């Protein structure tokens, strides 16, 4: 039977929260009148997450499992699951730590049935650390100011996507992915759904500050012209500073006996222009790195193992993207 809805859940070292997660998902499946299939993705976990996933998928055909060959990152784990979607209507994306309550599917599905291709969840509040909440709020507001498209504030990956939006996602080949930006870029009719984000239900977050920073950079560099324009701005600004400094020095030279210290002036200009050049090279380098990895055309991910319809399928072809 073809499901109406797929639920996609990426997991990385989530063995502690896994039993509670599956308990709540199973309750949703049993209570819902919709035909739902769940796609679990193990992103190279080093604990027992993949074993728990495999055991569940072999016992319950409503759950499919994707085991990646290593840790490719949250966004590419989601991408892997999106390529395996078989739902006729829509796909719900949630995190495995239960901070995205699966029980909200019903309300989001009603909004989808009103003609919205994308129903994105908006976090009215979130029970997380002050620093993390502050970082997110600052980033989302900065990105909205500089992005070339309208990316909703305080909205993560938690969303319900129509099948045609998923098809567009799967046709987009970029290597450094920022799904919430891609979601805004595709267009179609979209609507926000406000909710209060609870705290993680068990275990510790695997999403470090380094991962958050990389995700933020993907958002900025993939969906904004600001970094390149910033180089131009810095160039004009430093040139202006240099001209102003020269004029002030010239005025002082001819209006008094003051003679500027030439060594100090040279050091000042070297530091100023050197700093601007290094920042500019770094920004251009970030773009070049992205182009470099994109033109290699490596697979975005490698699936080591699949469990579908209670059957385990192992990847014995190392040259294949999926199998």
From TrEMBL:
Ranges that cross the membrane: 230-251, 263-289
SUPFAM superfamilies in the record: Nucleotide-diphospho-sugar transferases
Matches recorded under CDD domains: DPM1_like_bac
UniProt subcellular location: Membrane
Ranges where the Glycosyltransferase 2-like domain occurs: 7-166
Pfam families given in the database record: Glycos_transf_2
One GO CC annotation: plasma membrane
Top-rank lineage group of the source organism: Bacteria
Sample GO molecular function, one term: glycosyltransferase activity
Residue stretches in coiled coil: none
UniProt keyword annotations, A-Z: Glycosyltransferase, Membrane, Transferase, Transmembrane, Transmembrane helix
InterPro entries associated with the record: Glyco_trans_2-like, Glycosyltransferase_2, Nucleotide-diphossugar_trans
Topology versus the membrane: Multi-pass membrane protein
Matching PANTHER family: PROPHAGE BACTOPRENOL GLUCOSYL TRANSFERASE HOMOLOG, UNDECAPRENYL-PHOSPHATE 4-DEOXY-4-FORMAMIDO-L-ARABINOSE TRANSFERASE-RELATED
Protein name: Glycosyltransferase family 2 protein
Species per Swiss-Prot/TrEMBL record: Flavobacterium soyangense
